[in-house]
Amino acid sequence: MQTLGGIQVPLLDLTEQYRGIAGPVQAALLGVVEEQRFILGPVVERFEAELAAHLEVPHAVGCASGTDALLLALRALGVERGDEVVTSPFTFFATAGAIHNVGARPVFADIRPDTFNLDPAAAEAAVTERTRAVVPVHLFGQMAEMEPFRALADRRGVALLEDAAQAIGARQRTGAGAWITTGTLGDACAFSFFPTKNLGAFGDAGMVVTPHAETAERLRKLRVHGGRQMYHHEEVGYNSRLDALQAAVLSVKLPHLPGWSAKRRENARFYDEALAGVEGVATPVVPPENESIFNQYTVRVPGGRRDALAAHLRDHGVGSGVYYPVPLHLQECFAYLGYRRGDFPESERAAEEVLSLPVYPELTESQREHVAASVRAFFGA
Q1: Over 50: is that where the pLDDT of 2 sits?
Q2: Which residues neighbour 326 within 8 Å (Cβ) at sequence distance 6 or greater?
């Protein structure tokens, strides 16, 4: 492999993060092992309370994964077989997969070309009398336009579920000037703690937060086969419990989250400046009312050169990723929905142009300089 100066920059490197917190993490894991309470229990309850306080929301309910968080939230919000749920076609598969798996029909609406997030006007145009919920995705670490979505939900009488799998702790300034975070305006909000997320577990883990006590109560039942009392089942639920080992890891990591996200923003600013004016690549757009946590730093490369840039970076020791190469309305499993190429042009164009660069907090100055220099070299800048 050819490299400039022999520098290697993976898309993500979790080993450096672990080295900085290894002692506390190991102690927390050992505490769970010694107590021998692995499923739910006090360690999980403590993390649920810590996350609720961190996000300033009333209720947090842990579950087995971010995908399950979406599934449980949809059920808890009353989405049933035959309902429609409006969401984005430019997101990870789990968003629409969860809608399908509760028996509802995914209905797609196009994204904004600047932020990649679901367009509120397009979403409202997709609402019908069968619509039960709207699911904006806070993609790549920045929030969708929550005040318009809240107004849409209230006006049309549908539930509002935030998919914040990639955006825990992202913030947005309201029209009144107040800052809100993920989970503040939705009827429920789903989080993923997959290891690659800004707040990552040592395996799968998820959480749903909600302002509604009745929604939280139903979530707690649904995650344990539909009953609060053992062997008594009020409805058919799931086996989707957050285990104590993952909660212990996440409790150790949570106080570090603001600092890690701030370092990601610092790295993003460096790239913004280093790539400014480079013809052929467009850096991410973050509106002034948004504060992104940059789960991904995603550039656009128009003109069919995205894959060539990715190959160039690979040859120079730089990892990159395409999130996502095929929009959901063109996935084979959703052919039954009847969508065709051209139905959502902004999502389709994004899928052809996006490329994510390394932005993790532990990037060294020389690593991020190497990334920027490699991109600039490809475009002859």
Answers
A1: no
A2: 351
